[in-house]
Prior knowledge:
By secondary structure, this protein is of the alpha/beta class. It has two domains: 4-99 and 212-263, Rossmann fold; 103-209, Rossmann fold, CATH 3.40.50. Helix content is 44%, strand content 16%. The strands form two sheets. A six-stranded parallel beta sheet has the order 4-3-1-2-9-10, sandwiched between helices. The protein has a four-stranded parallel beta sheet with strand order 6-5-7-8, with helices on both faces. Strand 9 (237-240), helix 11 (244-255) and strand 10 (260-263) form a beta-alpha-beta unit. It is globular. It starts with 8 loop residues before the first strand and ends with a strand.
Amino acid sequence: MPDVRQAPVGVFDSGVGGLSVLGEIHRLLPQESLLYVADCGNIPYGEKSPEFIRERCRQVAEFFQAKGAKALVLACNTATVAAVADLRERYPHWPIVGMEPAVKPAAAATRSGVVGVLATTGTLQSAKFAALLDRFANDVRVITQPCPGLVELIEAGDLASPAMRQLLQRYVTPLLHSGCDTVILGCTHYPFLKPLLAEMVPASVAIIDTGAAVARQLKRLLNERHLLADGPAQPAQFWTSASPDHFRNILPLLWNKSDIVQSF
């Protein structure tokens, strides 16, 4: 009988952004085998209906179940908002970890009392984000900045072109002018822009994302259920609903290694 602790962890995003979360999981839990599905053929999720996103998440969940995954990580803020409650109801005994913008740690970190949020339009318009603000941001001023176009450029492997630099500068400037000393990266794609952001914001401005927190939550849930692997990990496996060749080409840029990529 196979040891369930050695079963893989399934990680899902609408595109390549979740690779930032995959990297944090790999750093914290290097003994875990990882499966990754990118729904690149349907990106961006911010423009899709909640019903469409829920259906895609169900399909991916069934795929990971068939692969024997012992846990699921929704490495996408938009997918979490639309589908995590539905998935937890369908799979009550399966550890499922979602994403949410880091409003609580940002509110605790700010000294100026002004926090900026870079996120997709879908995340900023969601009831879940509004509830986070109500719960954790009563004593701070939160400046939200929707960032159309960033995800598409990152999906193309563009992290530093003049076009990317100009677009990101346009989104960051209003936050700095508002006095933000803490900026939340509210999309899993955006951590790949940290080097570029570091050139645009003063060193005194804290940049916060939730990838490391998600990895810690996954470790906690696996530990509670005695599911932590003791290694060795199998090579990561990747699936995409768009071109496997394109995904394979940008993997070394975002994951530092090029593993097997298959069609989903």
